[in-house]
Design a protein that fits this description.
By secondary structure, the protein is of the alpha/beta class. The chain is built from six helices and seven strands. It has a single domain (about 1-180), classed as Pyruvate-ferredoxin Oxidoreductase, domain 3 (3-Layer(aba) Sandwich), CATH 3.40.920.10. Helices cover about 35% and strands about 25% of the residues. Strands 2-3-1-4-5-6-7 form a seven-stranded mixed beta sheet, sandwiched between helices. A hairpin with a 7-residue loop joins strand 2 (about 30-40) and strand 3. Helix 1 packs across helix 5, helix 3 crosses helix 4 and helix 4 (about 125-140) crosses helix 6 (about 165-175).
Length: about 180
């Protein structure tokens, strides 16, 4: 089993930390893992993406041109990465700010309104955990308990009081993700 993922959006949306949490979780499951971030010099507000590879075999290269799953968090990323999802793959996107929705019919497309849900949870910082929860529902490659441990490992200790809120966001993401085709 190998899962090749791209997570892409604006800097500040938790793109890189979502990938890091997935990588930590994979390590805890004795998987081979690659985590390769990419972001512009402007960071917050600029575009950011991360590729994550989770595998039970050695990973020959962290550089990918096509992906099993794309997690898309803004229009620019949808425009750039929709074509890079392998036929039969999965695209998950947050509908906020999307003006042109995914058009491919050879992939599974899911929508998760994570921006809206994070606002309902009264914490915009849980946005990425809502998205990650949706991913885990569709692609149960990682065990939830390992994701929670990975979250704890990646959050500085001064923010550990936010762990219950992030766990709730993961659960809500699992509940609200919708398949479109």
């Amino acid at each position: 089993m190998t899962e090749e993922i791209i997570i892409a959006g604006f800097g500040g949306q938790g793109v890189l930390s979502m990938g890091k949490i997935m990588a930590y979780s994979g390590i805890m499951q004795d998987m081979e893992v690659s985590w390769m971030p990419s972001y512009g010099p402007e960071m917050r507000g600029g575009t950011a993406n991360v590729t994550v590879i989770l595998s039970d075999e050695r990973i020959s290269s962290p550089i990918l041109r096509t992906f099993d799953t794309a997690v898309i968090l803004n229009q620019q990323s949808l425009d750039k990465f929709e074509k890079a999802v392998k036929p039969g793959g999965t695209l998950i996107y947050d509908g906020n700010g999307i003006t042109r929705h995914p058009e491919r019919d050879d992939i599974a497309v899911y929508r998760i309104d994570a921006t809206e849900e994070a606002a309902k949870l009264e914490s915009s910082k849980t946005f990425n955990m809502v998205v990650l929860g949706g991913y885990l529902k569709i692609k149960p490659v990682l065990k939830l308990e390992n994701v929670i441990t990975g979250l704890k490992k990646s959050l500085p200790e001064r923010y550990h009081h936010l762990l219950p809120m992030n766990e709730k966001a993961l659960s809500r993401g699992m509940e609200i993700i919708k398949k479109l085709n």
